[in-house]
């Protein structure tokens, strides 16, 4: 039964209802009806709690905190709950009985790896890939010692988990990562990089025929959209995991991967291009041009993310693309769901361009009252708006959920407001210019808080986009107003400049000055001390100079002394008596407040524990991902034994350790498993 105060009121005798109405003031409820409204609210809470108690009896519907208790009932061992993580152990508990029915099979190991780690997985039984003398009563025609050089697909898969070329035996143990090809060995491959979609977005125009799928003009490998496996008995194939597309594979299976709703599609002047008009080519650089341009076909290079249109294209041709790219997590501007991070108490939302043509028009309309300006498509927005907000009000400029618009600045995006005002940016990919909080905006700028959440302020130089010219690398966030609080959450940004009278907090983010000797954080002049700084679970590339380093926790400061100033500290806090640095990597020679469990712990270990990254180029799928060769003190050096840096909340060491703990229960006797990262 759903509680209803009106229904309860009507159950009372008419005499009490009449007297209650007489006691009520004009336009108000009577005291008895008001009391019933309060009772009804508590009854609704009780009803909801009773319904949840019923739901908590089932793994599919229970609350997250109940998952470990149900897991204990079915005997799930070593179940680690990740605090604050965006993934769950629900699937592992739900599939436990199915695991036990099929224990000892490769399919179960693969499903177990997927459920425990929440990464896509593939299992390889290496005895099937050994180059051996075969028994004549048990021939394996597909297992030959010498690969057939006329068959391109096995050669294309060499070095991947789907490599089928036979090898000679390797006698080193597979568990510590030594040998692989041996009779008792089973390899479990995990894909740490996920495939993220970009839907109906403008392609970057190089000239009238040449385009790049990435809106910022990067060469970007295109990824598969992984297809879900319906049955636990199915072993993963390349289409089931987030792998980069190969030219030959896409050429052969074009219809399987190319069309609306699949991994890749292109649209020219509003018309979807059919697969029979597409040719997969190697469009690598050839002098000042690209190789293999087609005269009458649309050429696509999935490895470089390049498109060439047929000859005879008009200068105003509009090319839009839908594709997938790789990255480690939901950080920076992206199409993933962010609705839970929107400012929740805003009473009015204006959508651009469906309700207003420009961002500035929508922002001006909300300046006095506050509200949200929501961009509801993935287009370029060639505007440099000025966000002004009245005293005590809040304006949020955001991308709609599952949208990733590109804001192209040709100057400074100014943010100003009255006392206690708040401006939030959410889900934006910002190219060029800088986000600036000036000291003077009218008489003064008294804004109280600026929040960047799930945004990318692109590090490095910006390309020319339409009529906005190319711009050199510059600080992407400048704070000149005093007493303002700046919150940066799950974002990627270039260098930051701030006066010492402000306050900056960076969490689960990347600050990239492009070089270890460049200045990532300082005063507006690039030399003096910047604002009081708090850094948690973040990676900072470049030198840091703060007036107070109030807290640095689980973070990496990848910095070095400048060549022109070798005496300067890579990370410097002006006031050493205040603040704390804990469970972080701080380069030798830094001057910071008291340290607790930081690296390097001793000067002799400085070279060994220095963080190593798979890539430091923004736009790469493995951008700022810690290399497997990084010292364990960094990969498990956070306060909860997760990795330091921006991807701390992925809990990668714990996921791997959990899988290792569960494997013994499901491996056949005599077999040994090795865990490897496929990305």
Written account of the structure:
The structure is a single chain. Among the domains are: 5-55; 64-133 and 141-192 and 655-677, no CATH class; 194-327, no CATH class. Strand 14, helix 11 (359-366) and strand 15 form a beta-alpha-beta unit. The protein is globular. Helices cover 17% and strands 24% of the residues. It is of the alpha/beta class and 679 residues long. It is built from 14 helices and 41 strands.
Average pLDDT taken over every residue: 89
Q: Assign a percent range to the helix content.
A: 10-25%
Low-confidence runs: none
Percent of sequence in beta strands:
15-25%
- Tell me the strand order in the biggest sheet: 14-15-18-21-24-27-30-33-36-39-40
Question: How many angstroms separate the termini?
Answer: 52 Å
Number of strands: 41
Structural class: alpha/beta
Give the C-alpha Rg. 29 Å
Overall, the morphology is: globular
The helix tally amounts to: 14
Could you describe the largest sheet, including whether it forms a barrel?
Answer: 11 strands, parallel
Topology:
Blueprint: H1 5-10, H2 14-23, H3 31-55, H4 67-73, H5 90-94, H6 96-101, H7 106-117, E1 120-125, H8 152-156, E2 185-191, E3 194-202, E4 204-205, E5 210-212, H9 247-252, H10 254-257, E6 265-268, E7 271-272, E8 278-280, E9 285-286, E10 289-290, E11 298-301, E12 306-308, E13 319-327, E14 349-352, H11 359-366, E15 371-375, E16 380-381, E17 386-389, E18 394-399, E19 406-408, E20 412-417, E21 422-426, E22 429-431, E23 434-437, E24 449-453, E25 456-457, E26 477-479, E27 485-489, E28 492-493, E29 496-498, E30 503-507, E31 510-512, E32 519-522, E33 532-536, E34 539-541, E35 543-546, E36 549-553, E37 556-558, E38 571-573, E39 580-582, E40 595-596, H12 606-609, H13 632-635, H14 652-666, E41 672-677
Parallel strand pairs: 2-41, 8-11, 14-15, 15-18, 16-19, 17-20, 18-21, 19-22, 20-23, 21-24, 22-25, 23-26, 24-27, 25-28, 26-29, 27-30, 28-31, 29-32, 30-33, 31-34, 32-35, 33-36, 34-37, 35-38, 36-39, 39-40
Antiparallel strand pairs: 1-2, 3-13, 4-5, 5-12, 6-7, 6-13, 9-10, 11-12
Helix pairs in contact: 7-14
């Amino acid at each position: 039964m759903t509680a209803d105060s009106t229904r309860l009121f009507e159950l009372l005798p008419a005499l009490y209802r009449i007297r209650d109405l007489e006691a009520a003031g004009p336009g108000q409820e009577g005291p008895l009806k008001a009391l019933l409204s309060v009772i009804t609210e508590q009854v609704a809470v009780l009803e909801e709690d009773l319904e949840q108690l019923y739901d908590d009896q089932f793994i599919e519907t229970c609350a997250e905190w109940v998952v470990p208790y149900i897991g204990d009932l079915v005997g799930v061992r070593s179940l680690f709950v990740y605090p604050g993580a965006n993934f769950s152990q629900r699937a592992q508990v739900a599939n436990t009985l199915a695991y036990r029915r099929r224990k000892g099979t490769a399919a179960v190991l693969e499903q177990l790896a997927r459920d425990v780690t929440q990464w896509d997985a593939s299992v390889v039984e290496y005895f099937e890939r050994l180059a051996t003398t075969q028994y004549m009563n048990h021939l394996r025609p597909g297992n030959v010692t010498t690969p057939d050089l006329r068959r391109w697909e096995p050669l294309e898969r060499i070095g991947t988990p789907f490599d089928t070329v036979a090898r000679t035996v390797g006698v080193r143990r597979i568990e510590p990562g030594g040998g692989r090809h041996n009779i008792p060995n089973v390899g479990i491959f995990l894909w740490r990089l996920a495939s993220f979609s970009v839907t109906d977005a403008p392609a970057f125009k190089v000239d009238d025929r040449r385009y790049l799928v990435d809106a910022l003009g990067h060469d970007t490998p295109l990824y598969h959209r992984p297809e879900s496996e319906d049955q636990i008995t199915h072993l993963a194939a390349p289409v089931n995991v987030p792998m980069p597309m190969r030219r030959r594979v896409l050429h052969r299976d074009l219809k399987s991967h190319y069309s609306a709703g699949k991994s890749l599609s292109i649209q020219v002047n509003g018309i979807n291009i059919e697969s029979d008009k597409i040719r997969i080519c190697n469009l690598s650089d050839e002098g000042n041009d690209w190789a293999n341009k087609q005269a009458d076909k649309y050429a696509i290079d999935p490895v470089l993310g390049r498109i060439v249109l047929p000859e005879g294209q008009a200068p105003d041709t509009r090319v839009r693309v839908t594709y997938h790219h790789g990255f480690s997590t939901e950080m920076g501007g992206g199409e993933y769901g962010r609705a839970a991070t929107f400012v929740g108490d805003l009473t009015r939302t204006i959508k651009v361009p469906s309700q207003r043509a420009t961002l500035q028009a929508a922002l001006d309309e909300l300046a006095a009252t506050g509200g949200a300006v929501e961009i509801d498509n993935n287009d370029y927005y060639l505007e440099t708006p000025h966000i002004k907000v009245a005293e005590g009000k809040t304006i949020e400029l955001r991308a709609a959920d599952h949208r990733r618009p590109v804001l192209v600045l040709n100057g400074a995006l100014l943010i100003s407001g009255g006392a206690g005002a708040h401006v939030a940016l959410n889900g934006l990919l910002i190219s060029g210019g800088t986000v600036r909080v000036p000291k003077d905006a009218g008489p003064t700028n008294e804004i109280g808080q600026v929040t960047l959440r799930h945004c990318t302020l692109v590090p490095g130089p910006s390309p020319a986009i339409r009529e906005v010219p190319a711009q050199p690398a510059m600080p992407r966030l400048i704070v000149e107003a005093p007493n303002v609080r700046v919150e940066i959450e799950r974002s990627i940004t270039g260098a930051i400049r701030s006066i010492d009278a402000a306050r900056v907090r960076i969490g689960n983010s990347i600050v990239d000055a492009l070089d270890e000797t460049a200045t990532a954080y300082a005063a507006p002049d690039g030399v003096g001390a910047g604002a009081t700084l708090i850094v948690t679970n973040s990676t900072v590339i470049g030198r840091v100079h703060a007036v107070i380093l109030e807290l640095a926790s689980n973070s990496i400061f990848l910095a070095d002394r400048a060549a022109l100033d070798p005496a300067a500290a890579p990370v410097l806090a002006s006031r050493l008596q205040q603040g704390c640095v804990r469970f972080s990597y701080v380069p030798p020679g830094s001057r910071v407040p008291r340290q607790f469990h930081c690296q390097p712990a001793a000067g002799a270990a400085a070279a060994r524990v220095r963080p190593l990254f798979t890539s430091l180029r923004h736009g790469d799928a493995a951008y700022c991902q810690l290399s497997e060769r990084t010292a364990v003190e960094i990969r498990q050096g956070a306060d909860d034994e997760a990795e330091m840096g921006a991807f701390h909340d992925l809990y990668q060491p714990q996921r791997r350790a959990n899988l290792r703990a569960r494997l013994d229960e499901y491996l056949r006797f005599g077999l040994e498993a090795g865990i490897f990262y496929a990305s």
